[in-house]
Amino acid sequence: MADQLLDAAGLRADDRPVREMSPAEQQMLALAVAMSTRPRLLLADEPTSQLDDADRDRLLDLLVEIADQQGTAVLLVTHDELVAARMQRSIHLRDGRIGEEATAAGRYAVIGADGSIPLPEALRAEWGSGRLVSIDAVAPGELRIRGAETGGDHD
């Protein structure tokens, strides 16, 4: 697998020191080294943050393909929604807690231990902290959340 990555990056016969390689080449090399031992788990912290779009996509293509071939679970940390979308499952943290989970089936809020439900970003931006809301059960398993119509603003 490491040879496959090195070939894809054009680095197999490259004997330059790492410091002379581009950021994309360094990331490809790091991925090849990490996957060479066929780990069951790979931890990757912002592996594409220094790459342009084309290099980001090429690295992710290889990472997903080789992790799948080897049966390696990948725990990847990113702030880039495009990178997160390439993974089978993503967990979105908000204020140090799990706020949402996304898979191919959709994006879902996660109910906290205290019963709280994080609002989607668009509603958080529109309503703001301290806003009064009305929550009604409209059918089994279905809720309706509405901003309360009040005489004053509680933001």
Automatic annotation (TrEMBL):
Residue span(s) of domain ABC transporter: 3-49
Xref: InterPro entries: ABC_transporter-like_ATP-bd, ABC_transpr_LolD-like, P-loop_NTPase
Superkingdom: Bacteria
A matching Pfam family: ABC_tran
Protein name in UniProt: ABC transporter domain-containing protein
